[in-house]
Each structure stands twice: as C-alpha cells, then as structure tokens.
Sequence to fold (595 residues):
Amino acid sequence: MAKNTIKNDEDQLNRSKTEIVGRLLAYLNPYKFKTFIVIMLMLFVMICGIANPYLLKIAIDNYIQNKDVNGLVYIGIILVVLNLFAMWASKIRWTMISSVTNNILVNIRHELYVHIQKLSFTFFDNRPVGKILARVMGDVNALQNLFNQSIQNLIPELLSLVCVAIVMFVLNVKLAFASILILPLLAIAMLYIETRARKRWDDYRKKRSNLNGFTHEDFSGIKVVQAFAKEDDTEKSFKNFVSELMGSFMKAVKLNDFFWPLVELSWGIGTVVVFYVGYSLVESGDIQVGTLVAFSLYIGMFWRPIMNLSNFYNTLISNFSAADRIFDIMEIDPEIISAENAPEIGKINGEVTFKDVTFAYDEHTKVLNNINFTINPGEKIALVGATGAGKTTIVSLLSRFYDPTSGEILVDGKNIKNVDLESLRRQMGIMLQDTFLFSTSIKENIRYGKLDATDEEVIAAAKAVNAHEFIMKMEKGYDTDVNERGSRLSLGQRQLISFARALLANPRILILDEATSNIDTQTERLVQDGIEKLLEGRTSFVIAHRLSTIRDCDKIMVIGDGVVKESGSHDELIKRRGRYYKLYMAQYGFMNDGA
Ligand SMILES: Nc1ncnc2c1ncn2[C@@H]1O[C@H](COP(=O)(O)OP(=O)(O)OP(=O)(O)O)[C@@H](O)[C@H]1O
Fold:
C-alpha cells in the first residue's frame, strides 16, 4: 500500500462507468419492492403528463372544431381527475425515494465503517485519519445525490423518453425524425466533456481530502500549535489547502457549466427544425393543426427528460470519484485476519516464544532481526533499550497488530497466526504510554475492560490500583466525563484508569509499555501494590525507561540494533557489567554501584 501524507494526493483507481453504476445499483437490491412501487408511481405520473397534450389534441380536432360542448366538458373532467391523481402519486413517491436513498447511505456508511475497523495497523500507518474521515463522511454523502437522481431520473426519464418518442412516431414519422436529428451531435459533445470532467472531479475530491486531513491533524494537535504560537503559519497552510480546493473545484465546475447550455441549444435547434418541417406538412395538408400543436408540446416533453438525464450524467461524473474512493477502501483486505477455520486458542497459560522473528514496517528498514526467546508462564519480563530500539515493535507483534516478515511467534506452543485472532486478543491486556480514553464517564472507561462488569467490580478495580481516591474527588465521581481522549484528566490519572481497565479485563498476557512513565514516584509506589496484583499469575512484558521499576522482573532483555543484546535478571546483568549495567549506572550510578 502506497504511503500517503496530508500534502500528497491519494492514489486512486479509476473504474469503468458501468462497473461503478452496476455496483451502486446493487445497493438498491434490498429495496427492490419499494423501488418498484416508486417507479410505478412515476410511470403513472408520466402517463398522466403524456395524456394531457393528447387529450388537448382530441379537444381541438374533435370537439372545438365541431363545437361539441358536451365532449369538451367530458374531456375537461377527465383532465382534472387525472391530474389530481398524478399529484397524489407524486407526493407519495417523494417520501418513498427519500426513505430508500437514506437507507442505502446508512448501509454503505455502516459497511465502510465495519470494514475500516477490521483493517490492519498498516492501513492506519499509511494515511492520515482526516483522509479516512473524508471517505466515510464526505464521499458517502456525495452519493446521496447520485442515488436520489438514479431512482428519480434514470429509469423514469428513460421510460418517459421512450414513451414520448413512441407517441411522436405514431403521430407522425417525419416530424419525429426531425425532433431527434440533433441528438447524435449532442451525445458526441457530452462524451468529450465527460472524459475531461471526470479527471477534474477526481482532483477536486483529492484536494478536499487533503484539506480534511490537514484540519483534523491541526485541531488534534492544537495544544502544540498554540504552545509554539504557530497559529499564523497553520492559517497560511490552511489557506493554501483551501485555495487548492477552490482552484480544483472551479476547474471542474467550469466544464460542468457547458452541459446545460449545450442541451438547451440542442433543444432550441430541435424545436426550430420541428416547426419548420411541421409548418410545411400543415401547408401540404399532410397533418392537421392539432397534430402540430400536440407535437409542439411533445417536443418539450421529449427534451425535458434529456435535460434531466444530462443533469444526472453530470452528477454521475462529478461523483464517480467519490464512489471510486469508497470502493478503493472496501477492496483493501485486512492483512491481519484469522486463518480460515482457525481454532480458538483456549485458555492461555502464558508461555511465549519468539522463533527467528524478523520484522520491517516497510521494505527499507529491518527493525527486528532474528529475535529468539522463550518466556515461561507467569514470568515478568522487562524490555529495555535505547529509544527506537524495537521494544514496542516486539509487543505489537505479540499482540498481532503486525505479522513478522519471517519467523514465528508462539503462545503456549501455538503459532498465533494459526489461531482465532479474537480469542488471542481477548486474553491480552495492553497498556500504552499514550493512554487512550473514550469521551465518556470514568466508570464506562474502566468498564471497557469487561463490558458486563458491575459497578462494584469497577470500583474494586479502581481501588486496587489506587485510582479510587482521586476519582471520588471529582465532582461526579465515577460518572465524571473525561472529555475527548481523556483530556479532562492528567496523564498520570489516565494511566491509573487504564490500569483499572486492564485489571478488570483480567488478561493472561499483560503488556505495560511505559505505562507508569507519567505517574510520579510517590504515586508509583502507591500503585506498585496494584501493579503487583495486576502482574500476579500472568505473563507480563514491561517496557520502561525508568529502570528502578523493572528491577524485580524475572528476566530483563536489552534490545539494541534489532536483536536481544543481553538477557538475565537484574543482579546477573549488573554483574556482567555490559549494556544493562551502563544504562543502569547512567540513571542511578550517583547513588551506589547498582548492585
Ligand atoms: N508504524 C511504523 N511505521 C514505520 N516505522 C515505525 C513504525 N513504528 C515504529 N517504527 C520504527 O521502528 C523502530 C522501532 O520502534 P519502536 O517503537 O519499536 O521503538 P521502541 O524501542 O519502543 O522506542 P521507544 O523507547 O522510544 O518507545 C523505530 O526506528 C521507529 O522509527
């Protein structure tokens, strides 16, 4: 998957028109019956419309010319009743169309959302969140017009066009031919515009996505922007993105503006030709005046659907790219999935083995190179090493957020690639440095670890990690809303809540990635009990730069240059006077010799 950034336009597949229309129309399938009723209602309205000029022709040629008042009244009543029914049918069809299109949009958005949720970390690594949002929200919205118009215009207008053309040919073949003479020229002009317009609309959607990506990132990092007083710079960038968007829109819309005048011009020419031919036919006595009057009305009815269809075509072109962008995402297969019929892993004991594990995030740089180790059930392992050494990568592979480039990771002797992913993740607890809390109450955030936990269980977990006290000091206690990402709380408080959440989840394998880095040493001592409880009886991986927190681990592995440089207990490694010793001395050497 090509990497994308905010400033780069995304890669996009250009599907054929028929493929896009076909795939979009497939969404109508569950609403076949309703769509059928809508089309029938439209047909009825259309037939009423077509009947009007014909009834007028009868009124002129049969009754007005013969001064037959009764016949005229009779025709008048038919006209009124017919048009009242047409009004009623028209009203119902509008309600039904809205219901169908809205349901389809909900379905597409849901399908897209569920699909994106399953995509691997690589997908999210490779594109800004704002651009993903642009597809889920903006691009799906863009389809609304398309669906509205397809149901409303495509089928009924085509039907109407065919029906009017048949009536015209029945009335008079020469006049009918005169009416459609200009159509081939119009079609050629439209095709020419279409090929150019589609590219421009693609460009517009990409620029919109860039702006979305930028705005999302800017607001997410607003504290940094304000702290560095970069508001003016970001405003400049914002203006650039907006002006690129404006430019691409103007370019696209300029071509669109050709459509209407083109159709209107053809309509005008068509009408002149019909009147010219019609006049000579009346002169020569081939047709009566009533036929020409009816024709003059039919010509309007013939061109209106063409106008509407060209409008639909226009909408289609401007929104093809939205559909392309949605399908592009739907076609990305999640890389990390359970193998077919993969068995559940069962209750995990906690033995973890890395066998010749090599990993690279992209083709250029290997992050891990032939990593080998085995951890016994219930052992506490610390991963230490310089920034960027690959510690988080090791635990990400164990959680199967990524798959190794080569080698195997075994839990209780089973390759994690061959077991049901959910059954594995359910038994793993991961606590990261940048704790993520959802914008809901503290209680619900803790309960996220076990959705059916009672309030008592939630409070017990909070007490165990010493979070209860600060929670009770908040104005609404456990019901206090933490705001988006938990911004209402301090980093340390967020970490305590994530401890409680993990304790409640009761995982078999626990990963603490710099999970205590934001807790002050005094509180850390307080939560140490909680952490001990948390780690008890589970295999745990602790990543910590503050080495005092990992002294008691059963094994410490020093990661560097993508390999395990050293491993052993704290005392063994201190005695060895290697890398760990140096790291330890750098932090605590001023106190004693570390032993
Ligand atoms: N999603 C990613 N895409 C590409 N490269 C990545 C990604 N995540 C990490 N890396 C790279 O992989 C290497 C190892 O990163 P990792 O996060 O595992 O280091 P770490 O040892 O946990 O560092 P720290 O102590 O700073 O948390 C780094 O060079 C980093 O730039």
About this structure: Residues 378-388+426-588 form a domain with the Rossmann fold fold (CATH 3.40.50.300). The pocket of adenosine-5'-triphosphate is lined by residues 125, 361, 367, 385, 387-393 (CB under 6 Å). The mean pLDDT is 85. The chain has two domains: 17-330, 378-388+426-588.
